[in-house]
Design brief:
Shape: elongated
Oligomer: single chain
Keywords: Leucine-rich repeat, Repeat
Radius of gyration: 20 Å
Number of domains: 2
Helix content: 10-25%
InterPro entries: Leu-rich_rpt, Leu-rich_rpt_typical-subtyp, LRR_dom_sf, LRR_domain-containing
Protein name: Leucine-rich repeat-containing protein 57
Pfam family, one: LRR_8
Distance between the termini: 48 Å
Order of helices and strands: HEEEEEEEEEEHEHH
Length: about 240
């Protein structure tokens, strides 16, 4: 990627507020972007080979969307958490094991995608995010879902293709959770809290590919109540 090409991208970004440079084999975050800290609303650097996100990311105070899918990130800088306007964060297909301690300060965040990383648990920091709608934690190494999940404000939580064998009963307390995806995990039927069925807001529970037959789920107490919510929601979207 030559400097002239980068310069052209920067000029476009200055006008549009969008900087998109994907699949160019970049090994680092383009430092020249810091000239546009007040212009940029969207940065997409997906499908590159970036290993580090520099602290200067915290200076993009108007950034609404950041995508770094399919890079080589192993950690995120604390400075990322200064992005008070960030609504969408896509970090699928990296090597992340955890989130920065201050991640809960991303107060505008609505969509978070962390599919295909190396997370071992549902990050507790997510519970502080009040506007979160969709959280994708599929294809990680999560083994259990902790009590803090009860404070999660998300509408949809995707935990497909992990190694989950335990789920806190607190998940039934999630005030807005409508869609819970748990396909292809290591759940025994006895480890699925019945309150998800009988006493939660969840109207779509996807549990195919675990250690029990789906028809056994239908025999559980509370399944009728779940079906009422499921049917009511289906009608609404029909």
């Amino acid at each position: 990627m030559g400097n002239s090409a980068l310069k052209a991208h920067l000029e476009t970004a200055q006008k549009t507020g969008v900087f998109q440079l994907t699949g160019k084999g970049l090994t680092e975050f383009p430092e020249d972007l810091q000239k546009l800290t007040s212009n940029l609303r969207t940065i997409d650097l997906s499908n590159n080979k970036i290993e580090l996100l520099p602290p200067l990311i915290g200076k993009f105070s108007f950034l609404k969307s950041l995508a770094l899918n399919n890079n080589k990130l192993t950690a995120l800088p604390e400075e990322l958490c200064k992005l008070k306007k960030l609504e969408t964060l896509h970090l699928n297909g990296n090597h992340l094991r955890q989130l920065p301690a201050a991640f809960g300060q991303l107060s505008a965040l609505k969509t978070l995608s962390l599919s295909g990383n190396q997370l071992r648990t549902v990050p507790t920091q997510l519970s502080g995010l009040r506007h979160l709608d969709v959280v994708d934690l599929s294809k990680n190494q999560i083994q259990n879902v902790p009590d803090t999940v009860g404070e999660l404000q998300a509408i949809e939580l995707n935990l497909n293709q992990n190694q989950i064998s335990q789920i806190s009963v607190q998940i039934s307390q999630c005030p807005r959770l409508k869609v819970l995806r748990l396909e292809e995990n290591c759940l025994e039927l006895s480890m699925l809290p019945q309150s998800i069925l009988s006493d939660s807001q969840i109207s779509l529970l996807a549990v195919e590919g675990n250690l029990f037959e789906i028809k056994k789920l239908r025999e559980l107490e509370g399944y009728d109540k779940y079906m009422e919510r499921f049917t009511a929601t289906k009608k609404k979207f029909a």
